[in-house]
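Researcher: Structure prediction, please.
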Amino acid sequence: MAGTPIRNVSDTAAWVAIYRAMESERPDAIFRDPYARRLGGERGEAIVRAMPRGASMSWPMVVRTAVMDEIVLRCMNEGAATVLNLAAGLDARAYRLPLPPTLRWMHVDLPDSVADFREQMAGETPRCAVEFIGADLRDAQARRDVFARAAANGPVLAITEGLLVYLEAANVAELAADLHDVAHARWWLTDLASPRLLKMLERRWQPQLKAGNAPFRFGPAEGTAFFAPYGWRESEFRSTWDESLRLQRTMPNIWLWKLLNKLQTARQRHEMRRMSGIVLMQSN
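Model: Predicted structure follows.
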């Protein structure tokens, strides 16, 4: 689609930042990100306007943010010493969550993305010790160098929020192996799509995403079992559907979806809950 405001995958971070801003500005907000509107900027707002049903489809990103916040804080309480935040984009958790000052937070992304984030946050004070690392994770040696640095101060929590869906399966496999074997991460927090979800998103957003060099790619049919050969097991799967009901941030026309859900078989309801989720994996 000509004229899409998405130029590359990095621009999707601005898109999601505006969704965080929209939630933060609600009187009943389930989280507060005071930096989101600034970080998303004009490009993020333009993307929300350009995407079909852009504003009304904020709910899965809002749910993802809230659930990941909960899990990050729990992992801190369970002893995480280093957070390896990959393709960190415009994530300001190190500035907005009540994190221990001794925590080491590695904010890793492409050099231009890291420079942009640092410039926008220059006047702000993080809650913990933040290390900014500009690296292309597609470069195997650069990736392993970063992961080895993380491993030096464990236990490590790795985060890949909004990343895997843009990768090819072979790239996800390499990342999974290196997080286990090089970073020695104890936990891996990510979001995961299913083939069914990818088909739905193709109909709605794929033309704009392909035009912006950011098509959705990864949605393994085997779900979290995809990661088992690389040393990972599912510890917790938080269904986006279930969590949206719990947090009261649901899709438009939720009444119709609830009705359809009641008419489905048990297997179909299970597939619905596993269509999209926030996943915490642990190393074997």
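Model: Residues 59-77 form the longest helix (19 residues).
Researcher: Thanks, that helps.
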